[in-house]
């Protein structure tokens, strides 16, 4: 039987998402500047970011399928063993990252970091679906959206504050990189430990335990479950996949190019022209990205109200339109302070992206397969990212003149297409109390 938790119990069970998202925040805002500091050219960045989509494509559905077949009271239950191990891998990779002495060392550590993040992510989504009833699931998923904003805010703000405190360079990288990544290592394992300690998983029924014992895990189990789940996948998930194709391609374009876009539009420089000025642009980008994440955690729970009052689909459509407007305005701004209102729309969109789509599909999938389907939803995220990493370098070089500002505009257009696709999603109606 699912639990009826208080608001603060729901917060406690999601605190671990804070550490996972602090790590993701560093990936989004700090890793590409680190590549720049180590001498990467703009059209190399998509391929250097290949770790994210490829590990997500391989790891998340496999871990999700494995967690569906797991029950270990000694290790904490069904989902918790996976997101705790994932957080531990993240912490080790974050600690090692600042010691990168070459592009390929940094890229290799990004692969390890992404394995950890992806091991933690989807079991955590399934943990919410397992534990909360239909009425509380919106609050549970948007609590994850809140902690996404909060964790990524601190990660991005560290990029602005730490360069003021930790001056100079250590090895080949600025000293502030060490401070930001060391803090991320502590947050990753510490916050997941807190959630694991404060929230128990619901034990499976006798029937579910019998099924788990009858179908023990072996090397082929996850793959059989993944292909079976894709074959039986409800139509709403195929419709969401089309939305995600444009949405996540756009987001990767933004994260890879936001620092260089701001450097060009505000500081009129590039990493090749003036590394010191570019460092200022990177710091300011951390503040700007921190702001959109502040917006995310401020409005995350407000979106629960609108999702209940109207529908998750219309909320997501509206938020994508606001995000698209923000991206289309962003590259044309020359006053660094005006970047904050411009990126606010993306902050609202990001709050929706981190929680609302799960509400559109969670009632269309069987509860005993939450893990594998949450992993498949992540495949819908990482496949567009994978396509972006192998195609966008060519597009940027040959059609967008290696101009990061045009890359952000391109992302805005893709978000408009994504919003239009959202209108075609047909979801099962579920009564939610106000």
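Sequence proposed for the structure above (434 residues):
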């Amino acid at each position: 039987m699912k639990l009826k938790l208080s608001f603060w119990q729901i917060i406690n069970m999601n605190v671990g998402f804070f550490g996972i998202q602090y790590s993701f925040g560093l990936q989004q805002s700090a890793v590409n500047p680190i590549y720049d500091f180590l001498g990467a050219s703009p059209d190399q960045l998509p391929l250097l970011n290949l770790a994210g989509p490829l590990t997500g494509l391989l790891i998340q559905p496999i871990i999700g399928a494995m967690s569906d077949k797991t029950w270990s009271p000694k290790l904490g239950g069904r989902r918790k063993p996976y997101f705790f191990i994932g957080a531990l891998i993240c912490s080790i990779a974050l600690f090692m990252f600042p010691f990168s002495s070459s592009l390929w060392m940094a890229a290799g550590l990004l692969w390890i970091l992404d394995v950890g993040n992806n091991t933690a992510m989807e079991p955590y989504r399934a943990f919410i679906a397992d534990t909360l009833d239909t009425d509380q699931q919106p609050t549970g998923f948007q609590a994850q959206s809140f902690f996404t904003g909060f964790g990524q805010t601190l990660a991005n703000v560290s990029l602005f504050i730490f360069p003021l405190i930790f001056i100079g360079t250590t090895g080949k990288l600025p000293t502030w990189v060490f401070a930001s990544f060391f803090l991320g290592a502590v947050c990753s394992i510490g916050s997941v430990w807190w959630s694991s300690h404060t929230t128990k998983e619901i034990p499976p029924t006798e029937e579910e335990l019998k099924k788990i014992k009858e179908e023990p895990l072996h090397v082929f189990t996850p793959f059989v479950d993944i292909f079976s789940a894709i074959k039986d996948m409800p139509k709403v998930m195929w419709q969401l996949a089309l939305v995600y194709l444009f949405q996540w391609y756009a987001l990767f374009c933004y994260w890879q190019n936001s620092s260089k876009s701001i450097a060009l539009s505000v500081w009129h420089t590039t990493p090749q022209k003036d590394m010191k000025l570019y460092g200022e642009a990177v710091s300011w980008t951390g503040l700007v990205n921190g702001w959109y994440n502040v917006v995310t955690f401020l409005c995350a729970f407000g979106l629960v109200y609108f999702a209940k009052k109207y529908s998750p689909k219309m909320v997501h459509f509206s938020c994508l339109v606001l995000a698209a407007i923000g991206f289309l305005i962003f590259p044309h701004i020359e006053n660094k302070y005006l970047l904050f209102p411009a990126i606010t729309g993306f902050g609202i969109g990001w709050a929706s992206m981190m929680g609302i789509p799960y509400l559109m599909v969670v009632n269309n999938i069987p509860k005993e397969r939450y893990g594998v389907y949450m992993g498949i939803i992540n495949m819908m995220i990482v496949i567009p990212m994978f396509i972006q990493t192998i195609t966008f370098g060519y597009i940027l070089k040959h059609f967008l003149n290696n101009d990061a500002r045009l890359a952000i505009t391109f992302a805005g257009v893709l978000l408009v297409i994504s919003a239009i696709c959202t209108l075609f999603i047909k979801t099962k109606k579920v009564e939610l109390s106000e």
